[in-house]
Specification:
By secondary structure, the protein is an all-alpha fold.
């Protein structure tokens, strides 16, 4: 993104374009970081909801074992175990989503300060924008992966809730 000799813009326009690009990338990076923070909050809330669901709902499901008719008894036990498995899997996906972070290179401020008297403002901005662009791409990729983990976790939690409902239905029919 350097100015070419065949360019039809003035040096002042070139500086304004760099400043505009710098501000745009800076704002984009802030927005993507906010999205990542919101997704982390959602994942954390889903973990809490999962633990609450296990503690107050799945733990209370029927698991009676009666010798007279073992089929519904074992069905209740199996469905309860599946509810635990799906809910636990949902929690694991949330933790995997929270674990994903962006690894990126930043220009050390010391290096910028050491070179600030040797390079012009535009060159510094271009160097910073280059590292921000890489960071922005990494954040976008990680955010997509986090959203996938969140969606999978929601699906597993829904399946767990379905297993709990099935357990309640089996228990109400046979007990």
């Amino acid at each position: 993104m350097t100015q070419s000799t065949n360019s039809s813009i003035t040096e002042q326009d070139y500086q304004k374009n760099i400043e505009l690009s710098y501000d745009y990338i800076e704002k984009s990076l802030k927005e993507v970081q906010d999205i990542s923070n919101n997704t982390n909050t959602q994942l954390g809330l889903l973990i809490g909801f999962n633990f609450t669901f296990i503690r107050f709902f799945i733990n209370e499901l029927c698991e009676k074992v009666i010798d007279e008719n073992p089929l519904p008894c074992y069905s209740c036990l199996l469905v309860k175990a599946l509810a635990y498995i799906f809910s636990s899997s949902s929690i694991m996906f949330c933790f995997f989503g929270l674990y994903k972070t962006v690894a990126y290179y930043i220009i050390p401020p010391k290096l910028l300060l050491e070179n600030c008297d040797r390079v012009c403002n535009e060159e510094l901005r271009l160097a910073i924008m280059d590292t921000w662009q890489e960071k922005l791409e990494s954040f976008n990729q990680i955010n997509q992966e986090k959203k996938q983990m969140f969606n999978r976790s929601i699906l597993l939690l829904a399946i767990s809730a379905l297993m709990a409902i099935i357990n309640k239905l089996i228990a109400s029919i046979f007990y």
